[in-house]
Design brief:
Keywords: Amino-acid biosynthesis, Cytoplasm, Isomerase, Lysine biosynthesis. It catalyses: (2S,6S)-2,6-diaminopimelate = meso-2,6-diaminopimelate. One of its GO terms (cellular component) is cytosol. Substrate binds at residues 22, 55, 75, 85-86, 168, 201, 219-220, 229-230. This is Diaminopimelate epimerase. The protein has 321 residues and is of the alpha+beta class. The chain has 2 domains: 8-129 and 276-319, Roll (Diaminopimelate Epimerase, Chain A, domain 1); 136-267, Diaminopimelate Epimerase, Chain A, domain 1 (Roll), CATH 3.10.310. It has 6 helices and 20 strands. The protein has helices at 38-45, 85-97, 183-191, 229-241, 291-296, 306-311, and strands at 8-19, 22-28, 34-36, 55-60, 69-75, 80-81, 105-110, 113-119, 125-128, 150-154, 157-165, 169-174, 201-209, 212-219, 223-225, 248-253, 256-262, 269-273, 276-286, 317-319. The longest helix is centred in the first third of the chain and has 13 residues, at 85-97. The radius of gyration is 20 Å and the shape is globular. It starts with 7 loop residues before the first strand and ends with a strand. Bound molecules: ligand LBFN2T5F.
Amino acid sequence: MNQPRRGQGPMLNFTKMHGLGNDFMVVDAISQPFRLRPEMIRELADRHFGIGFDQLLVVEPPGLPDVDFRYRIFNSDGSEVEQCGNGARCFARFVRDQRLTNKKVIRVQTAKGVIELRVGRAGMVTVDMGVPELNPPAIPFAADQRKDIYTVEVGGETVELSAISLGNPHGVLVVENVDTAPVGELGPRLENHPRFPARANIGFLQIVDRTHARLRVFERGSGETMACGSGACAAVVAGCLRGLLDSRVDVELTGGHLVIEWQGEGSPVMMEGPTASVFEGQLRLPGDPSPRRRRGARQGDTRPGQQRQQNRQRQTVTSKP
Ligand SMILES: N[C@@H](CCC[C@H](N)C(=O)O)C(=O)O
């Protein structure tokens, strides 16, 4: 039957999902053992040679009382991150579709605290994303004091941005028109700017009127995506702090619309939007290379792509029931 051969790992069940085109591979690590290295995540995320996704979402048992699940998030570059808003909505739909819970209000532990997911009708989910962090060291963002707008030097030019954490770090620039905004040029430079020591997601926000905005986001560790939920929350917080937006805003992203609500400092940000399940799949994971193979591997021993892997850190991401 489906017995693994020597050197092959176990089968892994996964679901491909998306929230407004921000796409995910979702893995239930409660019902099956799960073990992936960052280089494997990068290969699976590849849109030509792998499954293709912006983020990998992993469902684990909770480590805290009064919480239903633990939610782990990995960018397509293999880095583990603290928050993913579109992913949180898909997470809620996934745990119900897979019958891991029948609750409509689901409390989930992330690397930066507990978030609450409310399942609505027709695949809609509302997420309480928590209170935004504006204190520079906690974002983290290098600044002497907290401001609503910071001036940043990048590639010989000066830009103005707001710095906000929704559990993950964001820089938000207000632009005239998102269609012509320099997302591909400024995005990666600001993502890796020294003032964001943990890197950052960079949002380009166009104000349409006080209740409508357009947004493109160059995501840390994934590049520009069709939508970024935490980015939409950060953008509305930035727009409110600058006095440009009201407390409830329709945000148009490349992949569709989110409704974001923020009542001001000290209040949590609420995000409402759709979820979609695309297909379910199964893949055979490679087994661990034997210690001999790891020690003795030479360029000629490898398939294309493997040499790249061997040069990278061999950290292992594991999760077991
Ligand atoms: N797409 C996400 C954000 C995913 C994580 C982000 N790239 C980071 O590194 O912080 C969302 O919908 O929020």
